[in-house]
Amino acid sequence: MTEPPRTAGNGAGDDDRIWALIAHFGGAIAMFVSGGTLGWPPPLVAYLVRGRESPTVRAHALAALNFQLFWSIIGALGWVLGICGSIFIIGAILLGVPVVATAFGVIFGIIAGVKAAKGEYYRYPVAPTIVK
To answer: Is residue 4 part of a domain?
Structure first.
C-alpha cells in the first residue's frame, strides 16, 4: 500500500486525522477488549464513513483494517482450536495464540495511532493485503 498523499503543512486536516486515529486506536482498543478477535470493526467504520472522501483516511483505515483483520482471524482461530483441543497439551499452547494476537493488535495499533497523531503514515509489520 502506498502512503497517503500529503497536503500543505504536516499532513491531513483535523477531521482526517481524527478518523485516522479512530482507525488505529479504535482497532487497538477493540483487540484488547475482545481478546484478540474484533480489532477490525473500528478501521472498517473509519473506511466506510470517511474513506471515499479522503485519500488520507482511506490509506490509514485500510492499513489498520488489513492488519487488525489478519490478527483477529489468527486470534479467533487460536481461541477455537485452543478450546476444542483443551484436553490436550496442544490446546493449552494454542490458547496462547490469542494472547499474542491481542498484544500485536494493541502494541502496533498504538504505535500507528501515535504516528497518525503526528500526521505521519505507519506501515504495519506482518500485514497482508486482505482488503484493497
So the answer is: no
Least confident of 20-34, 66-80, 90-104: 90-104
How far apart (Å, rounded) are the C-alpha atoms in residues 131 and 58? 11
| Assigned C-alpha cell, 76 | 479467533
* Three cell numbers, residue 129: 493485503
**Of 48, 67, 68, 66, which Cα lies nearest the Cα of 58?**
48
**Per the domain annotation, does 125 fall within a domain?**
no
Length of the chain: 132
The SS3 assignment for 12 reads: coil
| Cα–Cα distance, 61 to 95 (Å, whole number) | 29
- Which three cell numbers mark 107? 502494541
Number of domains in the chain: 1
Q: What residue numbers bound the domain in which 93 lies? A: 14-117
Residue 71 lies inside a defined structural domain of this protein:
yes
- Please answer whether residues 109 and 39 qualify as being in contact, where contact means their C-beta atoms are separated by less than 8 angstroms: yes
Asked if residue 122 is part of any domain, the answer here is: no
pTM of the predicted model, to two decimals? 0.84
Q: Evaluate if residue 102 carries a pLDDT over 50.
A: yes
